[in-house]
Write a structure and sequence with these properties.
The protein is α+β, with helices and mostly antiparallel strands and 301 residues long. The chain is 51% helix and 16% strand. The protein has 13 helices and 11 strands. The strands form 3 sheets. A 6-stranded mixed beta sheet has the order 6-7-3-2-1-11. A 3-stranded antiparallel beta sheet has the order 8-9-10. It has a two-stranded antiparallel ribbon with strand order 4-5. It is globular.
């Protein structure tokens, strides 16, 4: 039944593609990524290489087996925002404006990019970060935002990546207010005022979430973090989960974070694999019908 419905959507998309234009579609395959694009062969290659670069950064901070892809990742690199809007969620009946979208699911992950956006690198970092976080099974807001903040300022120079510089405004937020207790920070939900209301220390929530992830990453505490996330998924109260996972009381955790901030947070330099210099993505043209099938599957999900 699903196969039949998929091909009905394919038929609809085949009729839509001429509205987008008659550009040739290309597929680009690098060691770890598949890119489908109507933005030209050169931009397709660049996109694949950017994802390979970011993957090499993530590989430095996740567990050794943390980047073994159990699910396929398809990257749809579209030439403009109008095309991307065809896939965007609707708000008040209109597509949400975005330069990138991420779709995760049990049978694969998809990232869609607008190649006409001013800073596609930041879109790559942000959307690929969502894919990385999806393996944590609905992580809490503080980890979602802290992780995104940690990598939002990443810079890559040749074979070195610099990560961990504070995003704009975070230093002022942390310097201007007393840090939240970690029990408060870790208990924030998507409906909490701290997460949504500018009048309720929202900036501090984002900045401190970045600081805690920075602390955990710099002390190589990914295993403890995994343990904590597993405990709270099983209904263990925040305080007890902190003590079991991190082997310290929440008060000791508070002091550790405060000390880490006072002593000066430093960015990290990560060496990237030399093999990236030798990556040569394979490129071939794709028929409009085959492209429509892939795009239809994205819509179907």
């Amino acid at each position: 039944m699903r196969l039949r419905f998929t091909w009905l959507v394919v038929a609809a998309f085949t009729s839509m593609i001429p509205v987008w234009g008659q550009e040739q579609w290309h597929e680009i395959k690098s060691p770890h990524f598949y890119v489908l694009t109507d933005g030209g062969e050169r931009r397709g290659r660049e996109t694949a290489l950017e994802f390979e670069q970011m993957r090499s950064v993530f590989a430095q901070v996740f567990l050794k087996d943390g980047l073994e892809e159990s699910l396929p990742l398809v990257i749809i690199a579209l030439k403009n925002g109008k095309e991307l809007s065809e896939f965007a969620p609707l708000y008040n009946g209109k597509p949400v404006q975005s330069a990138g979208l991420c779709q995760t699911g049990p049978d694969g992950n998809t990232i869609l990019l607008d190649l006409s956006a001013k800073d596609t690198w930041q879109i790559v970092v942000h959307e690929y970060g969502h894919v990385m976080l999806s393996r944590f099974r609905d992580p809490p807001p503080w980890f979602n935002e802290g992780f995104a903040g940690y990598y939002s300022s990443v810079k890559i120079f040749d074979r070195v990546a610099v990560v961990g510089h504070p995003p704009d405004g975070f230093t002022d937020a942390l310097a201007g207010e007393r840090l939240l207790p970690v029990t408060t920070l870790f208990s924030v939900t998507h409906g909490s005022p701290l997460y949504n209301d500018e009048k309720n220390h929202r900036s501090l929530f984002y900045a401190e979430s970045w600081l805690v992830v920075h602390y955990l990453w710099s002390h190589r505490m990914q295993d403890q973090l995994h343990r904590y996330l597993d405990l709270i998924r099983h209904g263990i109260p925040t305080r007890e989960a902190i003590m079991q996972a991190f082997r310290m009381t929440p008060e000791q955790f508070d002091k550790a974070i405060e000390k880490y901030w006072r002593e000066g947070v430093k960015a990290s330099r990560l060496s990237l694999p030399e093999a990236l210099e030798k990556v040569r993505p394979a490129v071939k043209q794709v028929s409009r019908l085959d492209a429509a099938a892939i795009l239809a599957d994205v819509h179907l999900h």
